[in-house]
Each structure stands twice: as C-alpha cells, then as structure tokens.
Design a protein that fits this description.
The structure is a homodimer.
Chain A (H helix, E strand, L loop, with lengths): L27 E19 L6 H16 L14 H6 L1 E10 L8 H5 L10 E5 L6 E5 L2 H13 L2 E3 L2 E13 L5 E7 L7 H13 L4 E7 L12 H7 L9 H13 L3 E6 L16 E2 L17 E2 L4 H15 L6 E5 L5 H6 L1 H10 L3 H18 L3 E5 L1 H4 L10 E4 L6 H6 L3 E4 L2 H4 L24 H5 L15 E8 L9 H5 L3 H10 L11 H17 L10 H4 L7
C-alpha cells in the first residue's frame, strides 16, 4: 500500500549498532567496547559544598531516569544476544559530580538566564571500563546539568540490568552556539502549563536552552500583566486559559532549573487585534474585512503606533511585562506590520499629520520607545527580521534578530551587523505541511511541504555568511505556530523533529572533527532519543517501522 | 509569521451558531429554536423487554457522556449570553428508547456483524420542545445505538445546565452506505489494545462501522493464530507486542458492542516477509537487496505461492485465523505482488515448471485456494484492487474490492462488476504528507501532500460511475499506514479528519435534500465533534485557532 517516490536514491549504508546513542553529539567523545553495568547500589555523589537546590534536584532526576527509562537497545533482539556479556560485566557503583576547583557555587537557574554567550555549559564526563568511579566535572552547575543529561543517555536496559556496551567513555563537551531554541505560540490555541513544562523537559533532554514564548497574538491574550489585567480578562479565550503571574513564574523557574531561558514575545504592533476588546480606541482596522487586506491572518487589528495614548500604553505594558520574567531578553516581535491598515485608519493618519511624520518614521519612533522601555527593565530586545530588513528603523546592534521568512535572509541581516537566530520557515517550521487551515480552502499551506527531520537536519548555519559574520549567528530554533495545534498534538508535532535543530546548534555546523552532518549516521541516535522520550512520557512520533528502528541500514 | 497562499479565494460566508452540531448529518432532521434543558433527574427509559447487555451498556454510556461531556457551545461567550433563556427553559426528564413493535430483540453485536447491506441502522428520534418525553425508536438495537449517539450530540453545557437551543428536534436517520470504515496497520508499528479500543470509541461516535484491521505485514506478525503460534512468537516485535486470541476477542466484542465489524487482513502473498522467521522454506526473496527490486518497501519477502507446501500453509492459516473473528468478511490483501521476486526465485520457477503454470495462473490458483479456505469458514473475501485490475484471477462477484491506488480506479473495478470500497490514497490516506520515512531520503512521500479534511470531504462516491453501478459502492474508509505512526500520534493523525469520510458514507453523496456537501457548512459541526472528542479523551487536533472555532465565518 505504498509507492516509493521515483526520486529515491538507493544507498546501502553500513551503520553499526547504536553504542553511541547520545543526542546531541558531544563535541568530543571517545568510547570503548567494554560492557559495564550500573551497580544495583549505584549512586551519584554530588561533591559540591552547599549545592544549589536546582542542582540537587537535577541529580535526583538523573537517578530517577536511570531507574525508570528502561530503554532496551535498538538492535534486533534488543540486546538479549549480549546477555552473558552484560551479566559478566563489571559494575559502576558511583558517579562523582563536582565543580572545577575555584568555581563559584551558583545555581543552574542563575546561569541559565545570563546573557547569551556568557553562560558556561561545558562539562567533562568519564566512565572508566573497570568499574572505578565515573566523574563529571564542570565550571558551573549548568555544565553539570548538561553532563548529567548526557550520562543518562549512555545506559540501556536488559531485564534488570542497566548497562553500556561502550566503556570506557570520555566526553569533553560544550555547545557550538549559545542559542538553541524552541518557539511556542500559545495564542492561536492555548497550551496548559503542564504541557509547556513537558515541552521544557524534552527540550532539556536534547540540551535546548531557550523557550521563545510567543505568548499572545491577535486571536487571544492569555498573559496576565500586572496593571494590565484587562488584556487577559477580556482577551483570553476563557478564564481558565490564562497564564497568571504565578504560572509565568512557575514556567520560568521550571525552565531555568533545566537550563532554559524563557524569552517572552508580545508581538507589536501588527499582531495585537485582541487588545481591542479592552482598549478599542488604541486599535486600528479592528476586524476589518476582508481581513486579508489588513492582516496576515484573521482577525485584522493593529496598535495605533503613531498615537500618543497607544505609545504610552505600549511602553508601560512592555515595562510591566518585562518585570515578571527573569530573562535578559524580551521580544517586541514586529513582523507582518500591515501598512494598509494604517493608511485606512483616520486616527493614525491624523496623528502622522499632526506630528509631521511618515509611516516609517512613526514606526521607528514606536519601536525605539518600546525598546527603551525594555532597556529600563534591563532587557535586550529581540525582533523579527522585518524590523531590520523592511523598515527604516534605527536599532542598536545588540538587538537580536529572528530570521523567519527564508533561510536566505540570514545573510542580509548579518550584512547589517545584527546578531541573528535562525528560525527559517523553509527549514524549522513544525506546522508546515498540515494543509491550509482557513475553512473553505482545500489546498495546502503557504509553507508546505512538511519539514522532515532530514530536511531540518540539513540546515547549514553559516550558509552565505562570511567568516567574519559567523560570530553573529547566535543559534537557531524550531517553531510551532499553533493555528492547527494544541495540547492534543504538541508532542507529536514537535518531537523528535526538534531534536534535529538541537543537535545542529549544540554540536555545530559540522559533526566533531569537521565531519559533515549525515542523516544516515544520525538516524540510529535519533531513534534512540525518540524511544527514550516515549519512555519518559513525551509522545514523540515513530520515525520508521520498528523493523527499521532496530536496523536502520535496511531502510534506506 | 504566516503567509497566506496566493491561491486563496476569499469567500465571506454567513454561518449561524452551531445549533445543529450533529456529525454525521442525519438523513432528515428538523429543528426549532426553543431552549430546553436536561432535567437534573433526567433518565433514559429503556422500554425493551429483556434488553441485550450491549444495549443496556450503550444506554449507560450515553448517560455517562451526558453527564461528563461538559462541552460548551462553540460560539463567542460559549453560550453565556443565553444564560437567562437556559435557566428559564423547560426541562426534559426522560428519553424513552424502544424497538418498533414486532421487532425481534437482538443484540447490537449480532447486528453489527451481519452481511453488509443487511444490517439495520435506521432510527427515529424526537425531542419535543415542551419537556414531554423524548423518544428514540428503531427496528434493531444497532439502530438504537446510532440514535443514542445522535442524542448525545444534541446537548451542550453552560455552568451546571445541559441544554439545547434547537427544540423541537425530529430526526429520521439511516446510513447511505453500508460500509463506513477505518483501516489501521498494526504491523509497521504496534498499537496496544487500549489504543485500538479508543479508536473504536471515536469511530462509533461518528457512526463508522468497519475496522479494517491490517494486522500483520512484512515487518512484524503480532497476531496469534491458533495452531500457528510460531508466526507471532518469532515474528512479533516483542513478546509484549502481540494480539493474543483473547485480545482479538476483546477487540472484536468491544467493536461489535459499538456497532463495528472488524475485518481482519492477512495480506498475501506479497506482504509476508516476516513469516520467513518461522517458515523460511516457504518464502521467496527474503530480505533480498536492493529491496526496491523485490518489494514495495523493506524488507523483501513473499510467500512461494506456487509451491504446494506454501499453498497448504496459507490455506490452513487463513482457515485458522478466520475462526477467531466473528465478521463475515476476511481480507487476503493481494496488493503489490512483486513478480521479479518470483522470477528470481528458483524454487518458484521450478514449481511453475513442474506444474506447467504461468505466474498468473499460479497466482490465480493460490488466491482461489485461500478464498475457498475462507469460504469453508463462512467468510466472504476482501481484496485490494490489483487482484482484479492487474492480474488474471477469476473471482466471484461477491468479492469485496478495496480501491486504493487512485480514486479513478473505482470505475475500472465497477466495470468488472465488483462491489467496491473507496480507500483511495489521493483522498483518504491519513499518513500522506509526513515526508519520506526512508532514513537517507530528505524528500516527500509518494502520496504527498497531506490530505486535509477539506480534501477528504470533497470526495464524490459516485464519480465516473454509471447509475447502474452505484449499488456496487459499499462505502469507503480512511486508512492509517503506520510507518511513521504508533500510539504516540494515533489520535492526532486520525481525528477529526476521519470524521470527514464518516459523514460522506453515512449521509451520502450529497447532504440531505440533495444539497451538495460544502466545507463551509460542515466546519462548525466538525469543530463541535472534534471538541467533543477531546472532552472524551481522544486527542483530536485543533482545526483552527480557537478564535475561528467559535466563529468560523471569520476565518475563510
């Protein structure tokens, strides 16, 4: 009941059993071929004086996963052929976890929200073959968290045994890029806090470190902002579909304890229609029809960015919103500003005339104002690419720019000297391929086709950039726009595909030793982390028939 | 962050609030505009002497859903604007459920597995506006089940009230087609019994009545067949990934109690490679490489259909497998038989020579043998279209033919006089659009793009058929091939899309009164059944932002 596409190129590849199942691939890793078991009394010795509570919790989670993952090796027979070797293997009784001498003892959470580029995530991990103590060392608690995450992936189960086939193991690891993100839109459809936390869990397992939280949009405003409660009271889908200040703190602290910075986005001025419910006079072209003349998607409605009361409102709102999140970054969005909406709006036209400003000048003033407001709250602004490519807005080069329209636009952003995050729709949009969601449209979506993990994994972070521009690439991210998603399909649409970008931006433009990335090499490891996610309750989808998962070389 | 495709046609449609939220649309339905509540003491009076236990259970399920669905109307404010009307509404205290006078009292389960065309599913349902008893009547328990399912969909929640806006309601309903199916492949990846049961639940909510169970394939053999236990012992992915005889009985009885017939498929002789694990001498071209020369997908391996021992094996196996399922139907499959596999197989070539048969003659004999074996077990055979379109096999016109390669092939099957089931890959394949699953292939799958619900819903069951051929159309089905699916994404890939085919084959080629089907009319109702499924624990995906779900006319 299948046809194989005619474009299929047959390549018979030899892939060995996945003794190296770590995802993302460490910067440097050597493995042996000695079997080693975890002792039934295996323990993790946290040799840190007065360890921070989030580090203690991370160690406890690792111990939990070692006990409960129960993931058999993805080989025919699931490892049973090695039963005798496993039984006879030496036992590892202890992993000693310590900070490098002289390191200050600080929490994972505090390191996770430092400025990009200053977070220290490196670690060294060794697992001797003779049963002597394994060691994990780092300069920071955050580095130790990353090492613990790697340690969890070294082990598989057969019966009651938890073992590796690959001792001794030595890993020296550090991320290639400081920004490895996942964007979640919680405005088109709402996601309960528990689902966001589960996503943070999965992100941490593949060492992603930024949740770009597109929390509100034209359709709903679920975020409670102190002093601006009316926005969510009147703009949320329902009183239960709201993120309270306590929820936000819960999410940001849960994330930080897992090494993840939460960058909140309030997308202005183009994606704000719902604000009209509580502040109608601040808004232009609210629900104007046909919506496609006024907005990228329904409903139309933009903030009157040239009007003083709207400017004051925005500045105060951004300052208040910034106060409830620990990140040093905050996104003001700025994509898809529709000029026709303002052209048709008499209030905006009157304001422009009275101030003697062009549309572009007014927009520039508006953005500068919100950014200044964020600066007073200690935040560095993040914007979508249109802010620097399509408008004449003066922004400092500290601004972080998200490239989304096309991967090829990264070069233009870099040429202007901005730090950039790769978020291209042609590689990393998780929602592409599900068809057009407008009710009467039978066709496919603008960003079809579906982005396979192989497509995502083929992304080249330095493509079309000069060597001097490489340092402008902060990293990249997968993105889930939620027009056709909610908690029902969050896991299956996000995982394991998002692990592809996680590896690109952790391991680097190439694999270790300059070897080009290769989906044939990656597939067994990706299967492994996918099966591990399922064991941990994240409903990551099957990439292939189980027949292939156990012997990927037979399915190329 | 979206672009709207340039092919978008703007149509502003006026869609009223979904007072008519039933899916599939009944054959005839009239509604009023009077509000009516369910009384807090609402009860269902089953006025049937000695009711069968599955009917009693169906009534209990309906009472349960009325209490637990708690689905608010999908309108802005979720119905709160009608609070006063709801509070003031008359109360319905009782639904009386009865069989038409003179009807024999038989179970849902027995009716559900009768021959296609002889099952009686019709029912009449009335809900007066004045609070007097609602009535549900049918000739069979199965008809009563269908009516109870409709009754559940009439009600929405506001606060503690369960109400309708549309009394009085009168429904006369019966299906347009006898076969309304869902195909599940449990061989590429395994699905636990609980997931199959949840799928049966969802199927029953939209009045689907056939689970076409593609239980085994070349990759794994999870089915325990009495006398042939070695097939699953050696061919299942693991000892826990097996359907025991008790599991099969559990599934078929659970299905039958919900009005669903389970048609099992053992796809022969082309999709049987895994049988080589227990019966290597019966198989040709096992795991031959490159697999694409020998099979539609890996691994290669076909039953030696010309060899006497393989023929004997197949005949006995089909007879034994047929014995464990109540359905009057059983599928021998027959798609994608690879002739090169047999050409290259010396054992097959020797058998053909010694019997003086061509490949086609031998295949015909083989199929006739397995069908004869099924006939002795009381089963009517089901086959894929190649058996009648691509081979010179003499099959009786009672054979049911599944059309899959293209919707346009239905005409050729009908021309040969066969009864057919629409299962076309270009409309009803749920798995299309997720990209190629072969490890090293970055591209898209052969049946891309994704089949949207709108595409599915546009299917015309009588296209290219003469009026005389209409009676050959038994119905149609959605299909889930599981190369990239398992329990993780079963709900989200299947629902609510599969409801589209459910309505086509229940309600008919057109909507009631000959009105053409129209996705704009359907969308609010589809949202409603989707939200109801979510309330009941089936993770059906969001079709649109909630903003649009509450006012679909604003999102066209």
């Amino acid at each position: 009941m299948v046809r194989i596409s005619s474009s299929l190129v047959l390549v018979v590849a030899l892939v060995s059993a996945p003794c190296r199942a770590v995802w993302p691939n460490p910067k440097a890793m050597t493995t042996g071929s000695t079997f080693l078991q975890l002792s039934p009394s295996f323990t993790i010795n946290l040799a840190v004086t007065s360890p921070p509570s989030d580090l203690t919790a991370a160690v406890a989670r690792t111990k939990g996963f070692l006990a409960t993952d129960k993931l058999e090796r993805l080989v025919p027979g699931r490892g049973s052929a090695d039963s005798a070797k496993i039984t006879a293997a030496k036992q590892l009784a202890r992993l000693t976890v310590s900070l490098a001498s002289g390191s200050a003892v600080t929490s994972i959470s505090s390191e996770a929200v430092k400025a990009l580029g200053s977070r220290v995530e490196a670690y060294n991990l060794t697992v001797p073959a003779d049963g002597s103590d394994a060691t994990l060392k780092a300069q920071t608690s955050l580095g130790l968290l990353r090492g613990l995450t790697t340690f969890e992936q070294l082990w598989h189960t057969l019966g009651n045994a938890t073992y590796t086939t690959s001792a001794p193991i030595a890993i020296q690891d550090a991320p290639a890029f400081p920004y490895r993100g996942f964007m979640l839109d919680t405005a088109r459809n709402f996601f309960p806090v528990a689902d966001i936390k589960r996503t943070l869990d999965a992100m941490s397992w593949v060492k992603m470190n930024v949740l770009h939280w597109h929390v509100v949009d034209s359709q709903s405003f679920p975020l409670v902002i102190p002093g601006f409660e009316e926005l969510s009271t009147q703009g949320a889908y329902s009183p239960t579909k709201i993120y309270s200040v306590a929820d936000v703190q819960d999410i940001t602290s849960y994330a930080a304890a897992r090494g993840i910075d939460v960058i909140v986005e309030i997308d202005s001025p183009g994606h704000m229609s719902v604000i009209s419910k509580s502040h109608p006079t601040l808004m232009a072209c609210v629900e104007a029809t046909p919506w496609s003349n006024f907005a990228a998607e329904p409903p139309a409605g933009q903030l009157r960015m040239a009007s003083d009361d709207a400017i004051s409102f925005a500045n105060a709102m951004f300052k208040a919103a910034a106060s409830i999140v620990p990140s040093k970054y905050f996104s003001t969005g700025g994509d898809e500003v529709n000029s026709n909406c303002y052209t048709q709006d008499t209030v905006t036209q009157a304001a422009l005339k009275s101030k003697n400003l062009t549309f572009e000048q007014a927009l520039s003033n508006f953005v500068s104002g919100t950014h200044k407001s964020l600066a007073t709250a200690g935040k560095t602004p993040v914007v979508w690419e249109e802010m620097v490519l399509d408008h004449t807005i003066t922004l400092p080069n500290t601004t972080v720019v998200l490239v989304w329209q096309s991967s090829t636009n990264a070069a233009a952003v870099a040429k202007k000297g901005f730090q950039l995050v790769h978020a291209p729709s042609d590689f990393f949009y998780l929602d592409c391929g599900a068809g057009e969601w407008l009710g009467n449209d039978i066709g496919n979506s603008w960003c079809d086709p579906f982005k396979t993990w192989q497509k995502m994994y083929s992304f080249q972070p330095f493509q079309n950039l000069t060597t001097a521009q490489h340092s402008l690439v902060l990293g990249g991210q997968n993105l889930l726009w939620a027009e056709q998603s909610d908690a029902s399909n969050l896991d299956s649409i996000a995982w394991p595909r998002s692990a592809a970008s996680a590896e690109i931006f952790w391991t680097g433009a190439n694999q270790p030793n300059g070897v080009p990335r290769n989906s044939t090499e990656a597939l067994p490891r990706l299967h492994d982390i996918r099966f591990r996610m399922v064991q941990r309750g994240v409903k990551a989808i099957a990439l292939q028939p189980e027949y292939c998962a156990l012997q990927p070389s037979k399915c190329t």
